[in-house]
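Continuing from the previous page of notes. For each protein in this section, the sequence appears first, followed by its structure tokens. Read the first protein now.
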Amino acid sequence: MNHFSRRAFLQGSALAVSAGAVSRIAAASLPEAVLQTQAGTQPPLAPANGRPYQPVVTLNGWTLPWRMNNGVKEFHLVAEPVVREIAPGMKANLWGYNGQSPGPTIEVVEGDRVRIFVTNKLPEHTSVHWHGQRLPNGMDGVTGLTQPGIKPGKTFVYEFVARRAGTFMYHPHADEMVQMAMGMMGFWITHPKDPTLMRVDRDFVFLLNAYDIEPGAATPRVNQMTDFNLWTWNSRAFPGIDPLVVRQHDRVRIRVGNLTMTNHPIHLHGHEFVVTGTDGGWTPPAGRWPEVTTDIAVGQMRAIEFDATELGDWALHCHKSHHTMNAMGHEVPTMIGIDQKSVLKKINQLIPDYMVMGDKGGSMGDMEMPLPDNTLPMMGGQGPYGSLEMGGMFSVVKVRAGLARNDYRDPGWYRAPAGSVAYEWQGAAAELPLAGNAANPSPQAGSAKETVVNVVKPTTHRHQ
């Protein structure tokens, strides 16, 4: 299990102009800034004080600790450059919070008074917008509209009451295109005051985000306005995304927020689910219906719930096929059916390891070609039966019997019972069905006589 690293910030420094009225006594000492640099999913952070709640599990992420100060729950976010491992074999130079991108999940309870100190260690000004929250206008975090920007080296304070239970996000409203494209975002959960309300057994959260990082590079191209080439969950791409481990018969909630520039139809295999929550709150039970895919538009959040009744390893992914790929190439021609042998000889003189690609389709599962440093294969990851041929926004919900209540460890691949796996037919070839029948055989190719079918269109309709 990974451990948090801790360090103190701004010792002896003066607090900058706050985003709202906060007493000098409350702001005299900053809460400790807790850092996390590991990319693995951390166990849920049980509340040590304050109101009780059922904590969430952030996929490939963690929850930010807090301190209680005279009944106020205080957090410290540090906006800073970070290095994030997208998947084994690739790291990216991003911007984030407290050592990671996305930043840590913030968990509070409905009715909590919350104070968030935000220290800016970026090379430009920033702010934090609390996406979806009801709060005083001066705490909304829109640079130039509700507050001045937080200049480099300065700390601002946001303070408000978490008025509405639900699932929210946070991100800058300052140089948005650059800062969000560099990975600045995070999740905020306001739990119900009644811990039994909308209770589930396992509650996962993650953000959809995307980057444009050229093969061999490590810094996103923030001015890309068409299509990015790395589609990630919590700034991780498959096979770097952890599985969602659940116990059979658990009631499971998955909260997904979208801060990319396009929509994502998120699809679950093996189970039906219902959408139980949006940014606006819980959806009324009478307004829910069973689904296996829900589309999450830009700036939206969807919470889905299902009963994990079926044992196995069930895919969970975006259903846009190019969002389950890594290091996508744009403007690549289709080569299916084209003989490239003559060209291959010439290319091999320059690139000895080059292989013909795309003449029979796009499968790359068994191909091994040299890649630039710090570049992920387009499709990768090995399953129990070979290459998964997936990348990007893809993971697995692993349903197992007999897990402990808070056991989120990867149980390995599912061992299917004998006779329950699709297999190759080894028997005699089945007779092909005839196109016609003996009474009315189909015409043979090249026959002189052709069958002409006359279609008569009725001019009236008769009801029997």
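Done with the first. The second protein uses the same format. Note its length before scrolling.
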Amino acid sequence: MGYAKILSVGLAGVAGHLVEVEADLAPGLPAVIISGLPDTALHEARDRVRAAIVNSGQKWPNRRITLNLLPATLPKYGSAFDLAIAVAVLAGSGELPPVALDATVVLGELGLDGTVRPVRGTLPMVAAAARAGHTRVVVPAGNAAEAAVIPGVRVRAVDTLHRLVAHVRDGTPLLTPPEPPPAGAPTGPDLTDVAGQPLGRRALEVAAAGGHHLALLGPPGAGKTMLAERLPSILPELDDEAALEVTALHSIAGLLPPGGGLLRRPPFQAPHHTATVPALVGGGSGLARPGAVSLAHRGVLFLDEAPEYSKGALEALRQPLESGRVRVARTRGAVEYPARTQLVLAANPCPCAKPSGDVDCECPPQVRRRYLGRLSGPLLDRVDVQVSLMPVRAAELLQTGAPHESSATVAGRVLAARHAAADRWRSTGHRVNADVPGPHLRRPPWHLPGRVTRELRRRLDNGALSARGYDRVLRIAWTVADLDGRDRPDGDDIGEAIQLRTGEGT
């Protein structure tokens, strides 16, 4: 009878858990039994592993093989355990030393010919191994670059099972991760392309500086989509913590670009208006995958033609917008994904969406109200900045003078404003004004004097603003003050914040 144990990692959402892959080989009718709550992909591993071992020139043991994945109460998903199972079987049969890869975490999917294929979620798996105190990992060659970004971990890569067997037996060196590519200059749409729309540009800058959600209303061609697509270009680069979170989510979804490395630019997600609730907030059979709101974590989620989305999909966003997390429950358990994103909504004023607006609009008033009414009050109440854009004039579109401000220029002001907010709220643990709870803003030392908030209090008393809206105007006012270099908002900042919140005066 032979026994061997190899370490691997399982995922539940973005949280990785160390898994011990045990192999017990005993006399009896040849069979392979897998226990430890495996899913279908893991049940099928018995056939993949057997073919991979034989086609790699190794002997398959004709014994009763019991494979157990500990902890047995944790559901196991996917094919990332294939390589660990193969090594455990070979070690248990005596083909490899019993202490093969002792204290080394092994990840990888096996092809029938013994090739080791990349797997999703390698980065959070390696991060989990590091948290558990294991600093040596073996990963597929296609995942080596992303695994290498975890500090303090010695990463080695394999392209075939034969290479790993040769390493254990003879010390043949494994592959080393490639050097990360040099960081290039940011690419993508630039604000210089946007003609006119000073209010829209100001709203975009305020939203970026304070982390506020944004709604852009107006006729086709007013520049709503152009502005939304340029929001990531004025957001600061992600710090190490945020970059790890974002890269881990994209690793789980299998969306990392070739070459691996940390994602430093804020992500931008723009799902089609036919997207389902699972596509937006996460879901799927078996292990729930992250949706668009999680893939936009620390970045921008843009819903163009927002009234065309299903009511259920829009309302499903309300809880993630408040909590910054998505919890998806399935029969085999629940997973949680981060979802701290900036929501940008764009909408035409009516279904016909005539470019000339009210003059040639064919929609009756009740149809216009019903169309925009698809964006529920509770959802819009969570959107801090709401502005209506006017059509672009010919003089603005054909302007040949000095170019408009570039994204780099605006990004400099946004970064300075974010630093000011982060220094102010450091003791509370918040980084942007949009995250600060209302009670903090209404109590000393951040309470604003009555002469500054007079108009704001009047609107709260007559029902023009809800209590949530009151707090959101305060947050916008603090952002306006940060952008203009003031340490506290004044009456003019409150007035501009009310305009950006309610759309009045536009």
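What the second structure shows: The first helix runs from residue 40 to 43. The first strand starts at residue 2 and ends at 12. We return to this in next week's lecture.
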